[in-house]
Each structure stands twice: as structure tokens, then as C-alpha cells.
Design goal:
The protein is about 70% helix and about 0% strand. It has helices at about 20-25, 40-45, 50-70, 75-100, 110-130, 140-160, 170-200, 205-210, 220-235, 240-250, 265-275, 280-305, 315-340, 340-345, 350-360, 365-400, 405-435, 450-475, 485-495.
Length: about 500
Amino acid sequence: MAVASEGTSALAVEAPPPHPESHTLEPSSDSRAGRLSFCTKLCYGIGGIPNQVASSATAFYLQVFLLDVAQIPAAQASFVLFGGKVSGAAADPVAGFFINRSRRTGSGRLMPWLLGCSPFIAVAYFFLWFLHPFTRLRGVWYMTFYCLFQALATFFQVPYTALTMLLTSNPRERDSATAYRITMEMAGTLMGATVHGLIVSGAHEPHRCEDARLPLPDGVSPDAIHLYSIAAAMVAVTYPVCTGLLCLGVKERPDRSAPASGQGLSFLAGLGLTVRHPPYLKLVVSFLFISAAVQVEQSYLVLFCTHASRLHDHVPRLVLTILVSAVLSTPLWEWVLHRFGKKTSAFGICVMVPFAILLAAVPIAPVAYIVAFVSGVSIAVSLLLPWSMLPDVVDDFQLQHQHGPGLETIFYSSYVFFTKLSGAGALGISTLSLEFVGYKAGACEQAEEVVVTLKVLIGAVPTCMILTGLCILLVSPTLKVPSQDPSRQLSLRRRTSYSLA
């Protein structure tokens, strides 16, 4: 989802997994070395909650807030969404560059970045949902704070996920800590969309239009302003609280035996090599369409339920259904990947296509809940599949080229970079289309052209993107790579922690 997603952006600085030979040579008496306590793993997992809570809330509710509460024109909202996504994408390689070159301090090398970014992210997130009285500058206001939030969140997430390599030299304990992180991030994703949605649901209820006769400043209900401010404050406070627990319970233990990622090869040079590899290029292009389709589906769900159907009261429960379905179906899809193959599993992405069209044609509550459940199942496989196919692409590349291990991280980080750019373009262009059809910010009833456009954006647009991406993916030849050893399978678990938001 919103995706995120975001949790894998740290791959630009995460060192590649140690070679399996190094583990087999270790004496059995050293198996207990580097053992992490339950408290350390729990505190490490808690550190991943804030970004997932904030990302989940913005993925589902930021667009409707900009259009119906802040009441900025749809054209300005499109630039806000586009600019924020681009700033987050651009911050990935920049964060990796600076963090890789930071010096170790008394609290560690990565921990100062987490402590330094946390209060600024909280402030940026709160003011992102703040409605100031200067109506002419609202577009600039939200553009500024959304770009700040996305960039700072990246500078937080990169050292946080890279911290896994500095917790211990024991690979088994590293993967145990990663499991705690993934679990807590999933919980944060559910918490963000659910808690935020329940708080602000009163701002989008039908009775607000019945009370529109009351004189209100700028046509905005004070209740809506207060509800969004409360929700923003609750999410913002998770940053200092969770970061504080992370720093209290986790201590960096640098692994001097681990090779530095990407040494001797710059990001641009490595990127030039990777994008010229045909299997990687086809994989990236196919999932650019699929990822953009998922983000469009998520972003327009609340607007569709508000203006194109009578599903206002069901929005929080529909969002919760999508996320719970995605979380619960992830283990099932992991089994399907190993049992039936990856290209066969790709057909699970298109399951949501007929149901999305059905929702646009028959927007009633029973259909909406079925579509939400099926969409969650499809979103799960769309997020899991690329991270299971990328190792095969990397193996195929290494069989054809003789380069150092640093290129592995460039494959992953560049994929995140391109995915964020595709989401930025899709959301920017689709939101701009609302401006062309006459969307009126804050209006209780929209024109018929707007209703039709929302139905197209929730049904036809994701359908075309998903089918295009699947066609590109399925026509590419199947890669024949050596069977994955246990260390590579454990590395795959780290890669699949992509944010459902």
C-alpha cells in the first residue's frame, strides 16, 4: 500500500547478508553469541511503528483532507501529492549517501539520526493537518510540510532499518529482530488507518451537509478542524515516544566483519548497470504500473465513498477490512509463491480487477465490503511478489557480470526510488483530472462529471494499470537461477517488509 510503503527505503544502506560459508565455519559454541533479549527486540520493533502509522493515515485520508477540509483546488492538491512523493523518492539516495558517511558517536552511528529526525517529523506531520486562516497560502503550506514530512520520514526509516545490521553479528538473531519489526510495522499500519479514520469519521458524515446553512468560516466545520487536529496530534506523539523507547532498549553493536555496502561503486554508476539489465528493467516497469494502481485505489477510496456513493459511514470499516485482509493473506501468498511459482502467483493481483469494476457499477455496502476484502488479498501479493522476484534478478545479473556485493543494495534501493516516482505521477495526474471536470472543494454534492470521474479512477484506471503491468511481467522469460540457500531466504524476509500503506 502506501503503500508505503517506505519500510524498504533503507536498503540503500543495509549491508548484504553474510555469506552462508561464514556461518558454517562457526563453532557451535558460538551459536549463543550476540543473543538479543526480548526487551531489545521489542523496543527495536516499536521503533518502526510511527512511520507506518503516519504513512497509513496519509495514504487513505490526506487527499480527502486537502480537498474537503482544507478546500484547496484539486490542481493544487495534485501538486502537493506529487511534490511530497518526489521529495520522499529523492531523499532515499541522499539519506544513504550521508548516513553511510556519518561518524560513530557515543550513542552510535545511526541512533543520532533517529533522535534528531524524530521531533522534526512530529512537527511536520502535525502541521500537515493544521488548517491555518490564510486561505491563499494553503497550497504552499501543505506542499511545504508534506515535502518535509516525506523527506524526514525517509531520513528516519533508512537508519532505522539499517540498524538491523548493527544489533548483533548473529544472523539468526538479526532475522528474529526483523520479524519483530515486521510485526510491529503491520500493527502500526492497522493502527494508523483505523484510529485516524475513527477520529475523523465525524468530519465526513452526511449530516454536515444538512447543517451547511449555518454560517461557518470558509465553509469548514469547526468539528472537522478539531477532529483532524486531534488525529494528527495522536499520530505525531508516537514519534518521540517510540523513538525514546527504541533508544532506551537498543544499543548499537557494530559488526566489523560485515562488508560495507556499495564500496567502490557510486549509486549512479551502479544504477546505470542495473537499469541496462533486461530482466530488472521488465520487473521494474511492470510493478511501476501495479504499484501505481494500488496507490490510486487506496487514495480515491474515501473520496469515492464520500461523493460517488452513500458509504460515508462505512469508510473506517472498509479501510480496516482492506488492511486486515492484506495482513492475514500475506502468509498464504508466501506459501503459494513457493508451492506454485512466482508467475502463477502474479495472477492473484488481477483478482481485484472485476470487483473494483463491480464497486464502481454497484456502490452498495455489501459489495463494498467484498471488494475491500478482495482488494486486501490482491494488495498483499502485489507487495510481496516484487521482493521475492528481485533476488532472482540479482542472481541472474551476478551470473552475467562480475561485480562486488554492493550492487545488490542498488537493485533494491533503485526499485524503491522508481516506485515512489510512479506513485507521485499517478496521484498527481489523477488528482489533476478532478480539476478539469469541475471538482468543488468542500461541496456537499459534486457534479455528475465528478462522480463519473471518481468511478473511473476507482475502477477503470487501476484495472488498466494492473493488466498492463501483468502483461509486461508475464511475457518476460522465467529466470533460471540456483536454488536459494537459507541465508538468502532469510534475507528475503527482510525485503518483504514493504509498508502496506
